Amino acid sequence: MSTVTTTLLEQVYRIAQDAGRAVMHVYFRDFTIEEKEDKSPLTEADQAAHEVIVSGLNALPDAIPVLSEEDGEAFTGPDAQGRYWLVDPLDGTKEFIKRNGEFTVNIALIENGKPLLGVVVAPALDVAYLAAEGLGAFKVEASGQRQPIRVSGRPAEGATWRVVGSRSHPSPDLAEWLEQLGSHDMVPMGSSLKLCLVAEGAADTYPRLGPTCLWDTGAAQAVVEQAGGRVETLEGYILSYAAPEEHINPHFIVWCSNT
Predict the structure, then answer these.
(1) Which of 42, 121, 234, 251 is deepest in the core (most CB within 10 A)?
(2) What local confidence, expressed as pLDDT, does residue 206 receive?
(3) From residue 150, how far is each of 112, 217, 228, 230 by CA, in Å?
(4) What confidence tens digit (pLDDT) does each residue in 127-153 have?
(5) Could you give the domains of the chain?
(6) Are the C-beta atoms of 245 and 113 separated by less than 8 Å?
């Protein structure tokens, strides 16, 4: 497995910050909204962030293929080492349109199906999450100060679970799952921030029983895993990115511990 350096993590963080600034240029003015083939919304900000990220990643010394939500057809597959960049230029477009701040820029480095590095930037909230294999997971506050983050660990028997759920994508299967979980408080949140809340210990679990794509989860999964948590399918397998030609994730649960 490749060694991810602090230098690379910082380079990717700067690229994500630049993309975040491009997003915010659009956020503060009137913008057009189009509709993709799958009926999901698309704004100028999605494309602007995509262009910044692809340009930045292609300028890095190590040439690695890029799979971006906004240009999936340009992706030719992982390189000889099984690596590729997985990018969601603007995750939470519905939240962007609502102007509630809960949207993110996401960049992950995948190797042989595993996210080795992840950067999640929430430009409107002025917060970011960084993680890399061997380096740990960190939250970056508005001041620029970086704090190591860690999952909370499984709640004690009989304790109330803190569950984070989608603000814009309710699922009919969720009520049944929550009933089996037991006592819980529900916290609604948009975009990949849901995974990051588990990573930083602000929530205990995030059940996603509805459709998502690889680029929605890759970067934040790296943050969760490096913070001591796990992201697994309903069958108990770690969520994998080994088949990028299949864009849709299975249903999954984010847990606040590795056990």
Answers:
(1) 121
(2) 97
(3) 25, 18, 6, 12
(4) 999 999 999 999 999 999 999 999 999
(5) 6-148 (3.30.540.10), 161-255 (3.40.190.80)
(6) no
